Amino acid sequence: MFSVSAANASDLIAQREYLRDAAGTLTIQEVSQLDFESAAPILTKGYSHAAHWLKIKVLPSKEKNIELRIRPTYLDEITLYYPDSKNPDLWIKRVTGDKYAYENRDRNSASLGFIVPGSSESKTYYLRLQTSSSALLHVQALPPAEARVNDLRQDIFMMIYLGFMLWITFWAVEDFFRRPDRLTGFFIIYQLVYFSYSLAITGHIAPFIPPDSAWLNDAVTSFLVLTNVFISIVFYYSLFALYSPPKILLRPLMALCIFYPLAVYGLMHGYAMEVLQANAQIVLIAAVLFVFLAYTTTKDAIPSRITLRVICTLQMISLLLSMLPLLGWVPATEWNLSATLIHGLISALLMYFILHTRSAAITKTAKQAKAALQLAEQALVFERQKRDEQSYFMAMITHELKTPLSVIRMSLDAMQVKNPLKKHTDQAVLDVSNIIDSCAQIDNLEGNAIPVSKRSCNVILIIDELRQELGYRDRVHISAEAIEEIVTDRFLLRIVFKNLLENAVRYSPPHSMVNVRASCKRNLYPKHLCVIVENEMLASNTPEIDKIFDKYYRAPGARRYTGFGLGLYISRKIVSLLGGELMADIKDQKIIFQVCLPT
To answer: 20 to 30 Å CA-CA from 490: which of 165, 280, 358, 431?
Structure first.
């Protein structure tokens, strides 16, 4: 197929001339009397309803027969005329083409052609071409042995070509099953269509078409031409969508896909030439759009935008080289006879490069994600072990310390001591007990081990009980409108307000009042009960408001009091567990805590 010089050296055609029959009605007798114009080695006349006549002069040969080898194979009808040697006034007529049964052809090969008798004198032959495909015609007059060598070269090339295309397809199928991807799925469909299309346009499906349905060969070929372009556009549309190009350019590309069902309809109703011509023009439009889209993308993906631009530029060049001669806009060369196959190979390689790059990058990312997941799982197991150990330690230390503290408290009570030392000792024991309780609460909260038992309760009554139990009756003032009871966990709510009241009294000036206000927020959904605890602050004890709920945080002036800085941290955790929110603010040398709970 690529041995151009060898083929031309054996070609016995000395002269080629061309005549256009616009109406397609001229007879051989009329044509033989008309003047022809000089023709190029490859006839390039694009899509036309006209009949095209080629007059060739074949040199003398010692061979018994000469083979007229005709390419491409997808031409509809080629009629051969030459004078009868026994009666020069009569013309011998023979016909071939992809609309004619393979068994009735002169040459049993993928290429079209005729076998004519050799002659010791130069002979003139007339070929009439009528086709719905592009009128691209190349004729060689070869000795039989040379014709078989050319056919063998073409068959070997096709075997290598199809084998390579199948290898790429198998890779895509394997990659798709390993990592399903829409783009890879479209590529597999494209490869299967192009594989069938390649067999059709090179004449390799003709031997399998029944003689009485020979027209199917041409119909299937035309259908595959349209389908190949449609799938290719869909593939690139899906590819470009990853890069977020301007929609004004992406929409025309999708609009080109709408042509496919219309084209199939036209093909079925006898408009094959018009449909194929429009299809070729759409290929050129798509090639230009590919480049515009590649250079206007706004988002990076895999492969990179630079790689995409190079690929689309190469694709456009390949399409221009293969499609312009088919439209008859530029002369064809020997290369153009195989251009469709070569373009298919280039497209497959470019698509393969895109998909292979994406697959490698996604596989790498997946491996990294898997490794990160394994590390996270290991860290989680380690964290659980630490939590279990911490929980065991907290349970043990709570038990081991609470018991001695209870003994100490009972012993102090039994001693009947009434001096200030007894008061300080009781407070120290209470402080240690509170710290142990706080640590246990922290452990339960962070281990999600605190059960929530909700029931109806009155928040104002809870606060009033705490005020009396803690001895803050003269320091805490409660004001509340008529509020409803809420459904929540009473025990946990006591912990929250106990911490807030203790903090408010402890870290405010002596004899200052702590104000507690409660009200219903009906504008929230669901309806919320909001409780505000407000107290003045010591000038030396102003906390950092953004750190006030951090674990272990204590304001600068709080160092002289016992504590771990856990009370507010625990309170916020509990309020969150109850479905509410605990907030803090500082205003006019006062600190304001607001607890909002759904009713």
So the answer is: 431
Distance CA 89, CA 155 (A): 40
Task: Give the CA count within 13 Å in the CB-facing half-sphere of 57.
Answer: 9
Which pLDDT score, from 0 to 100, does residue 448 have? 61
What one-character DSSP code corresponds to residue 202? T
| Residues facing 91 on adjacent strands | 83
Low-confidence ranges of the chain (pLDDT < 70): 1-9, 386-403, 405, 407-409, 411-450, 523-525, 557-564
Residues 531, 484: Cα–Cα separation, whole Å = 13
Per-residue pLDDT tens over the stretch 456-470: 888 888 888 888 888
Q: Up-side HSE of residue 544: CA atoms within 13 Å toward CB?
A: 6
pLDDT at 29: 94
Cα–Cα distance, 445 to 551 (Å, whole number): 13
Q: How far apart are CA 303 and CA 243, in angstroms?
A: 10
CB count within 10 Å of CB 262 equals 12
DSSP state of 22: S
C-beta of residue 243 within 8 angstroms of C-beta of residue 192: no
* Burial profile 456-476: b = 16 or more Cβ within 10 angstroms, e = fewer: ebebbebbbebbeeeebeebb
- Assess contact for 113 and 70: CB atoms under 8 A: yes
Nearest to 41 by CA among 335, 347, 366, 470: 335
* CA 298 to centroid of chain Cα atoms: 16
Q: What pLDDT score does 552 carry?
A: 75
Name the DSSP class of 426.
H
Contact 194, 348 (CB under 8 A): yes
Distances (CA, A) of 179 to 300, 356, 363: 21, 12, 9
Asked whether the CA dihedral 168, 173, 176, 177 is positive or negative, the reply is: negative
**Cis bond leading into 117, ω under 30°?**
no
pLDDT digits (tens, 9 = 90+) for 290-302: 999 999 988 888 8
pLDDT value of position 125: 96
Q: What is the largest CA-CA distance in the chain?
A: 151
For Cα atoms 310, 356, 338, give the angle at the middle one, nearest 5 degrees. Answer: 60
The DSSP letter of residue 258 is T
The pTM is what? 0.66
What pLDDT does residue 167 have?
95
Q: Which residues contact 468 (CB under 8 A, 6 or more apart)?
A: none
Contacts for 496 with CB less than 8 Å, ≥ 6 apart: 571, 574, 575, 582, 595
23 vs 12: CA distance, rounded Å: 31
Please give the single-letter amino acid code of residue 161. Answer: Y
